[in-house]
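Weekly modeling sync, notes
Attendees: S.R. (lead), two postdocs, one rotation student

Agenda item 3: backlog of single-chain predictions. S.R. asked that every request posted to the team notebook include the full sequence so nobody has to chase files. The rotation student volunteered to paste the first one in as an example of the format we agreed on. Action items at the bottom.

Example entry:
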Amino acid sequence: MKVLTKDQYLRNLQAGGELRGNVKVPGDKSISHRALLFGAIAKGKTIIEGLLPAEDPLSTAECLRSMGVSISPIKKGKIVEVDGVGLNGLKEPKDILNCGNSGTTMRLIIGLLAGQENHHFILTGDKSLRNRPMKRVGQPLKIMGAKVSGRRDGEFAPLAITGKKLRGAVIGTPVASAQIKSAILLAALNAEGSTTVIEPARSRDHSERMLKAFGANLEIGGEMGRHITVSPGKDLKGQSIIVPGDISSAAFWLVAGSIIPGSEIIIENVGLNPTRTGILDVLEEMEANIKLKNKRDVAGEPVGDIQVFHKENLKPFNLDAEIMPRLVDEVPILAVAGCFCNGISKIKGASELRVKETDRLAVMARQLKKMGAKLEEHQDGLTIYGGSDMKGCDLDSEDDHRVAMSLAIASIMANSNSTLRRSEAAAISYPDFWNDLKRLQQRN
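Predicted structure, as returned to the notebook:
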């Protein structure tokens, strides 16, 4: 018998059954990263409840600890305490900062470190992260005087950053990217003079909301594009933060509940920030049976419970570049949804997915075709023909967490059981996914 390595780990996926019950998805990954980063450079203690205890935020925490920030252990259900060191209190690390698989960690930390004067930093990550583009962050920071270098003229990690006194600037971002914007805003906190970021469309605004809560001097305006201006000179102050459930993780249950006959799921305490709810707009276009309940505001972020019921004859959907910043992480599971719509669904403007943990467009096309799905791959998206009979087969996450979970949902709708290689990738953003799936999946 062939012995499988960890990278080839096989998980058996059972076809059939319905999903029923309540589920709490992990804390929002974007908010978890920012709570750690802003807490680290604030004055005083930041208390974080519901922080996502997954690999990506753990990478952010470990990098901050290497620079002298005290952060309590991050475990499921435990409150996390961050002892802030102030805007200029980070220490030069004794070793290379390892960002693991987390693009958010690396891109935001570039902005954080660029203005730490007279300090030298080296950033690296795993094989996947070392092949993801970083110049998109380093280049605009150079307008402020930052010194960032790396492989292929700064395109790839390992990256070297020499902290310098930065100067404020007006910077237009070519794409609506929360990571690029957030890196610039972090750098702006330590610059001389105001910095304005102009983005062509509204990207995730967790950084703006949280910076305001921490006491930063931040203003939002603009007619041609969206202008975010930070004026330095104010210290950030430690806060108490409650992290809502991640709607990108909720998306797997929203689609599963919609397409799997007999399903009824309530997803509790989900973040409903309007810059993140593109998935709900698409489900509405599909005429899915979704209800929002118990809507409320928690620490400046809108939150609620989402109830989803199975719906027959879902309508096909069309996604374009305009909506993409609000649901880029949900495209893999929406590709699965398209396979079960009554018609042809189209995804355009999604070329950003080719530089994620994997080339997600290529991987989803490759894996779904194995199952018998009919779809076409384009440079910036997919065309998906609904109504195909899906068959069980040997699938592979190709080390991508969102691919792993998307294929798990697709496998329930197959005509026989499947296997999934590298299923452990799900832990990147949703450590309890497999336990939750097992609990929700009810078989006759």
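Discussion: group reviewed the output briefly. DSSP finds 13 helices and 24 strands in the chain.
Action items: rotation student to repeat for the remaining queue; S.R. to check formatting next week.
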